[in-house]
Amino acid sequence: xxxxxxxxxxxxxxxxxxxxxxxxxxxxxxxxxxxxxxxxxxxxxxxxxxxxxxxxxxxxxxxxxxxxxxxxxxxxxxxxxxxxxxxxxxxxxxxxxxxxxxxxxxxxxxxxxxxxxxxxxxxxxxxxxxxxxxxxxxxxxxxxxxxxxxxxxxxxxxxxxxxxxxxxxxxxxxxxxxxxxxxxxxxxxxxxxxxxxxxxxxxxxxxxxxxxxxxxxxxxxxxxxxxxxxxxxxxxxx
Length: 238
Description:
- This protein is of the alpha/beta class.
- The protein has 9 helices and 8 strands.
- The strands form 2 sheets. The chain has a 5-stranded parallel beta sheet with strand order 2-6-1-7-8, with helices on both faces.
- α2 packs across α4 (about 90-95).
- It comes from Rubrivirga marina.
- It is found in: Cytoplasm.
């Protein structure tokens, strides 16, 4: 079984998908991490974000998601880059490179292979996949599809809480307000890029359940997805 969870940044899809997979004992596939790793490769090699550059770079990249301490680890050409891709800069890079057709094609093929290999090896299990085009492009035939949304303010607060950790955290109400304004603007710009790109734009699949997470707790979001999974796995008999 494949569960697809899509949505914009800050909608709660990553945490929800990870916890659903943990509850079910299934594989969690964080496709966004793959694009962040590719974005890191572009940045470290000083390449322009163009299709020509992608065509030369992507075939030689080795991007892997591997289980590790504290959850899934991301490896790029054998190096653990998990911590280096969890930054606002990495998020922006991921959005840019994900619009490139060669990058998209390579990552979609990798995602499909990883999920299908796992399902083949675990016929009674499944995969929970999160991203922005999972239900529309990567797995249009997914058994369960969710599209998570939330208002921009709620998403900005969540993203700020995730990103502003440590000595760089905003200190004082004025600093927090300024940081929140910046995050809100960045999210709005990312939404614009993701929704308007020619390749696999961000949108809900026609058969996806749209879940507004603005006022929901993570537990409520997780239960909504688990309920849908249970209905598919154990359909009621007339």
